[in-house]
TrEMBL record, chain A:
InterPro entries, per database record: AAA+_ATPase, ABC_transp_ATP-bind, ABC_transporter-like_ATP-bd, ABC_transporter-like_CS, Oligopep_ABC_C, P-loop_NTPase
GO biological process, one term: transmembrane transport
Originating species: Compostibacillus humi
Keyword Chaperone (UniProt): no
Alphabetized SUPFAM superfamilies for the sequence: P-loop containing nucleoside triphosphate hydrolases
Gene Ontology MF terms in the entry: ATP binding; ATP hydrolysis activity
Name this protein carries in UniProt: Peptide ABC transporter ATP-binding protein
Keywords, comma-separated and alphabetical: ATP-binding, Nucleotide-binding, Transport
Entries under CDD domains matching the protein: ABC_NikE_OppD_transporters (cd03257)
Length: 310, 323, 347
């Protein structure tokens, strides 16, 4: 069952210029993006900086104004801010990139994690404390840490506090915006494992936004590749990594460092070939503005942005 | 460069509403003061009907917006009204004073930066040393000392006791204007008040520069410069100093505001015939048209100072030029 | 024999850089703590030495020590550059080396450039400092050549631009141009691609590799990214808590990793066929709380019998050129087999 349906989403930011600061043009941060999230799955949104992946996530959760398009969550149209009922809002939460700046340093862990509970559930002090302790245990932190402040924790622990806050209300959908890119390798592993665990436990759906293809491959069932506000390719993990069709995706996949040093010369050679193909075939894959075409279906799961035939 | 011009033009356009607001406030202030333009001109014993007739002739009974337009157009033509005390046009009263104050401010500014730049640099470069502590102590004393007390001490020590400097006026009497002696004497009279003001006012700039240097010192691009093989002196001169002085340069225009406040006390204490002294005297004698004119000129100076600061910043900082 | 001495990691008679018992200590409160603790290694000409570790491992502190760029650190030991100990050099002599014979590429290309100086002048400064005799015109020509060399389109236009006007990838190219301006014999790259997108990363790594081939320099590549090391390095040193725990040629390190930390690290990045990632227990302790006695990794692998560790762990040469610290590697195993997919999967 689809939990989230995004149809032709556009988010434009005005460019102001001139002496009177009039809007002269728009930055088309998200420029007509459509996708469907199935319940309980992890959907990866991949792109390089400036591709619009973060803006897409922020628009879905209501942090950016939608210029055009439609967002349907749990069967209800939430494109307009007013249509977002409290009930819908609590079912959608976000995990932020930087565990160092996304937690208020002046608040205790108890207050940070309890904040959504206070907004939505009227618990007594005692119940609240118990819930927070349960949540902390769930994310693998000791229940005694409720009276500590964020600076007393390591990066990975802080990110888990952020996750505890996000799952406090038992949401259905979590938008995770680069949740591990600020963390060390071994800490990344901890957070990623943990995200997988609670997904099973709570039946969560993830929209996983990341620039790291290795992690996306590890985490996601379906993946969309984004470039300049548009999707260039969309498909299952296998579609994207084993049968990439769009030249942009091929180039991205080829750029992943080869972990086997014996194969590296081969990888360099392959990368050179892809680069050559990219230069040669650029005009076949992008329109005259350098943007991707509309997505065309090439199999049941696999969509690629190609010019229309004929 | 195109962007820079756009920025400057936009910035200049913003000053117009500021000037209009200033003039409206002043106009309202003038209206609220006792008496009117006639009060100082006419014998108080003249009968009320005659006064009323004169008022009608002078347009003093017109609606307020007509009088405001009259007043503004007068200012633009250089007519600031009549001084009650001097019995002459305010413009004439003010002209000499403006010139005196301008020179005093200029010399003060020069002293301010002559003191601030080396002290701030030394203090920032060798922070947490004895030298830095000494300089910082000076700045704290400077912050804590009211300018009027410090100026009094300076007059007393260097003017009366040691007799090194004149203690009043802007020029020795009896000198022919235009001669070399005249200008030297003018400069000599400026020195002590300017130095007194500068020694106190400079401390904020010293501290500002110090913290800018300490801040810049820790930037990554300073490590890049060292990794290039640049010597310490080059690192300081080429990278740290240049990048630290920028915000100071931008502060330059705002310095005018501090100067105006300072000059009000210092000119009074040194009996230096400038705008500040005129302001205090006129307030005490309730010479309202002059007070009004002085406030107007001060206000304009401050607005132009802010404008100047922003323009300087847009020229020196490439990052602002773009926006 | 396809594996030459260079790849096997046996130090050739005259290494470009030989570090002996180097320690770098920082002051916290009123005591000094070693961030780099008794590190010895060598780099040869035409060789890339990768240094891998997580934050707090001391890898960056080591790089800054080699360039002597630390402001307030206590550095002990020997740094022999072309056989001469640079620790004894005066600052002015050191300045002649820096930017000329040894140069550094920094992590964050935005903050590494002076925001108020056109990038052309920033590159030109390196030339000016070490070749003061060339004319202004010639210097500009050289800068334009360098811009072209690092793959910047329209060098004439970019020459006048300020750092904030360039993209992250372009800025990193400028930082590289500064570093290679005088064809240094030793190039130290401190996380040169961490701040960049993956396609830009591939381009920058390619560029560093090409430049190394051209100049026959020795390169120290510091990174936390195992993939980057696997692609770039000839030899790899793994650092944990200020010490080198394993050093080997790149193939041995990836095919036969020995130290528990190396193996844990390799299993904590997603690989083919790996369902769960390995999580190293506990955290890297802050500098003041590092265990200084015995095996420093002991606390992170508590399920291993304490008697497996050495009392004073040393580097053991288990194969020619392959060194491992402590003896605990012999008894190390992963408690959860799912987490040990092997780095190349089973495919």
């Amino acid at each position: 069952m689809a939990i989230l349906e995004v149809t032709n989403l556009k988010v434009y930011f005005p460019i102001k210029a001139g002496i009177f600061n009039r809007t002269v043009d728009y930055v088309r941060a998200v420029d007509g993006v459509s996708f469907v999230l199935e319940e309980g799955k992890t959907y990866g949104l991949v792109g390089e900086s400036g591709s619009g992946k973060t803006t897409t996530g922020r628009a879905i959760i209501g942090l950016e104004k939608v210029t055009e398009g439609k967002i349907v969550f749990q069967g209800k149209d939430i494109t307009k801010k007013r249509a977002r009922t409290r009930e819908l809002n609590r079912n959608m939460q976000m995990i932020f990139q930087d565990p160092y700046s996304s937690l208020n340093p002046k608040k205790r862990v108890l207050d940070i994690v309890a904040e959504p509970l206070r907004n939505y559930e009227h618990l007594s002090k005692k119940q609240e404390k118990m819930r927070v302790q349960e949540l902390l245990e769930l994310v693998g932190l000791s229940p005694e840490s409720i009276l500590k402040y964020p600076h007393e924790f390591s990066g990975g622990q802080r990110q888990r506090i952020g996750i505890a806050r996000a799952i406090a209300l038992k949401p259905k959908l979590i938008i995770a915006d680069e949740p591990v890119s600020a963390l060390d390798v071994s800490v990344q592993a901890q957070v990623l494992n943990f995200m997988k665990d609670i997904q099973k436990e709570l039946g969560l759906t993830y929209l996983f936004i990341s620039h790291d293809l290795g992690i996306v491959k590890h985490m996601c069932d379906e993946i969309a590749i984004m470039y300049k506000g548009r999707h260039v390719e969309q498909g299952t993990k296998e579609d994207i990594f084993e049968r990439p069709q769009h030249i942009y995706t091929k180039r991205l996949v080829a750029a992943i460092p080869e972990i086997n040093p014996r194969h590296r010369e081969k990888q360099f050679q392959f990368r050179k070939e892809v680069e050559k193909e990219y230069d040669a075939a650029y005009d076949d894959y992008f329109n005259k503005d350098g943007l991707a075409y509309q997505l065309q279906k090439i199999s049941d799961t696999h969509l690629v942005a190609l010019p229309e035939k004929g | 460069m195109k962007f820079m011009w756009k920025f400057i033009v936009r910035r200049i356009i913003i000053t117009f509403p500021q000037l209009i607001l200033l003039s409206v406030l002043l106009f309202l202030m003038a209206q609220a003061m006792p008496g009117d333009a006639l009060t100082g001109l006419i014998d108080p014993n003249v009968p009320e009907e005659v006064k009323e007739q004169r008022r009608e002739e002078l347009g003093l009974n017109d609606p307020w917006h007509v009088r405001y337009v009259d007043w503004v157009s007068g200012i633009v033509k250089g007519d600031l009204g009549q001084s009650f005390r001097f019995k002459m046009p305010v413009t004439e009263v003010v002209t000499d004073r403006v010139i005196n104050s301008f020179w005093l401010s200029l010399v003060t500014l020069v002293f301010t930066y002559l003191i601030a730049v080396p002290l701030g640099m030394l203090s920032g470069r060798y922070n947490n040393t004895l030298l830095d502590s000494a300089i910082t102590t000076y700045t704290y004393i400077g912050f804590a000392t009211p300018i009027f007390i410090f100026a009094l001490v300076m007059v007393w020590v260097f003017g009366y006791n040691l007799g090194w400097f004149p203690t009043s006026g802007s020029v020795a009497p009896g000198l022919e204007p235009g001669t070399m002696e005249y200008y030297l004497s003018k400069f000599y009279h400026l020195l002590l008040p300017a130095l007194s003001m500068a020694l106190i006012q400079t401390v904020s700039t010293v501290q500002y520069l110090r913290s800018e240097i300490i801040d810049t010192k820790q930037k990554d691009f300073i490590i890049t410069a060292r990794a290039k093989g640049a010597s310490e002196s080059r690192v300081y001169n080429r990278h740290i100093f240049r990048n630290s002085i920028l915000p100071i340069a931008a502060f330059f225009g705002y310095e005018i505001t501090t100067l105006i406040t300072g000059s009000i006390f210092v000119e009074r204490i040194f009996a230096y015939p400038g705008m500040g002294q005129l302001f205090i005297e006129s307030v005490l004698l309730r010479d309202f048209s002059v007070v009004n004119a002085v406030v107007l000129l001060f206000g304009i100076a401050m607005i132009l100072g802010a404008l100047l600061s922003d323009i300087i910043l847009s020229i020196v900082d490439p990052r602002i030029r773009i926006k | 024999m396809q594996t030459s001495n260079r790849v096997r990691g046996i130090s050739v008679e005259n290494p470009l850089l030989q570090i002996n018992h180097l320690s770098t200590s920082f002051r916290i409160g009123d005591q000094y703590y070693r961030a780099v603790d008794d590190v010895s290694l060598s780099v040869n000409k035409n060789e890339v030495l990768g240094i891998v570790g997580e934050s707090g491992s001391g890898k960056s502190a080591l790089a800054y020590s080699i360039m002597r760029l630390h402001n307030r650190a206590k550095i002990e030991g020997e740094i022999l550059f072309r056989g001469k100990d640079i620790m004894t050099l005066k600052n002015s002599e050191m300045n002649k080396l820096r930017g000329n014979d040894m140069a550094m590429i920094f992590q964050d290309p935005l903050t590494a450039l002076n925001p108020l100086m056109p990038v052309g002048n920033q590159i030109g400064e390196t030339l000016l400092l070490h070749q003061p005799n060339i004319s202004k015109h010639e210097r500009k020509e050289r800068v334009l050549e360098l811009l072209h060399l690092v793959g910047i389109p329209r060098p004439n236009y970019v020459y006048e631009q300020f750092p904030h006007e360039l993209s992250g990838g372009m800025r990193q190219r400028i930082v590289i141009a500064i570093a290679i301006a005088n064809k240094p014999e030793l190039l130290i790259a401190d996380e040169p691609t961490t701040a960049l997108d993956v396609t830009i990363q591939a381009q920058i790594l390619d560029l560093i590799r090409e430049l190394k081939e051209d100049m026959h320099s020795g390169v120290i590549l510091i990174t936390h990214d195992l993939g980057v090391v696997a692609e770039m390095a000839d030899r790899v040193a793994v650092m944990y808590a200020g010490e080198i725990v394993e050093i080997a040629d790149v193939v041995s390190l990836f095919e036969n990793p020995l130290h528990p930390y190396t193996r844990s690290l390799l299993n904590s990045v997603p690989a083919e066929g790996q369902d769960r990632l390995h999580v190293i227990q506990g955290i890297v302790p802050a500098l003041q709380y590092l265990p200084r006695e015995g095996c420093r990794f002991r606390e992170r692998i508590p399920w291993i019998d304490p008697s497996a560790h050495e009392e004073h762990p040393e580097l053991h040469e288990v194969e020619p050129g392959h060194f491992v610290r402590c003896t605990c590697f012999k008894q190390f195993y992963f408690p959860d087999k799912r987490e040990e997919a092997g780095i190349y999967g089973n495919s």
